[in-house]
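Appendix B, example 12.
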Amino acid sequence: MWRSLWQGRGFIEMNNHGKVRRLVINGDDFGYCPERNRGIVECFQKKAITSASLMINAVYMNDAVVLAKKHSLPLGLHLNLTEGLPVSQELINKESSSLLTSDGYFHGKYGFRESLKKGLIDVEEVRMEIRAQILRFRDVVGEMPLYVDGHQHCHVLSGIRNVFAEVLQECGIGMTRLPIEFGLEKCVWLDKAAMAFFKGIEEDAKIAKEVLLAHGVRHPHGYMGLSTMGSNMSVEHIQSALLTSIKTAEATSAPGSTLTFELMTHPGYPASKNIGGCGQGPDEFACSKDRVHEMDVLKTPKLKQFFSENNVRLCTFRELVEDI
């Protein structure tokens, strides 16, 4: 039996009796604030997400680890090179660092990118900080991360992707996120500024793909999350993104291979003013109701029914590693 769906990305047909597809739904920014932690755990308990990425330099990181162990929530590392304070003691002890402002904080999402473009970032300092965050994760969680992604997609940027791949290979970590969302250009609900920024991320990710694979670092066949973030998340947008990703992956993968996908999410309750963050307080997105909106969408029965009807099985990154 064939099922059809019309969405903004076009007319897509899916075989309901095909092979099971595996999907990780990952909650980013775990540890950022108490409200973020509560929302992520709540979604995990409701089976609305399957894993979370831990911000190792976040103010409420230790509380997040306690919650993860209590509820058996699988964790990866959310590498952060753009927001708050560094983890590397070597950087902290330096009189000045290319990664930090004069106040000792990372340069921010756009400031970091500008510094990279100007050639102002010392790659060896990046290497120090990536290693430090991975080792801190090992110390607090009790094991090395199976999966590492990048806060604000810092890991695929020019000047970062090579050293990121080298450190992951050195640490024996073989899985990451590749933020290329198939059909993104047809997502007409995105404004021009968001589309331009997201397309820039995708261009960086396309170059990073070969670098990562050359170092034995793999990624799921498909990724969704750019077009479905915050207020742009809806059941229909997730359906459209996933079906487009499945169709593209099936066309480019070996017959009979298990297809794997990741949906990036940001569930949580609005952060309280001046509570949380990574040393500078919570940002605007953390304080908005967009994260509650994501929680509501992810928990809707309609979405779970859609997964079931299209042979999509929710899983963890550990299961993905076994299938890729």
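The longest helix spans residues 192-214. DSSP finds twelve helices and nine strands in the chain.
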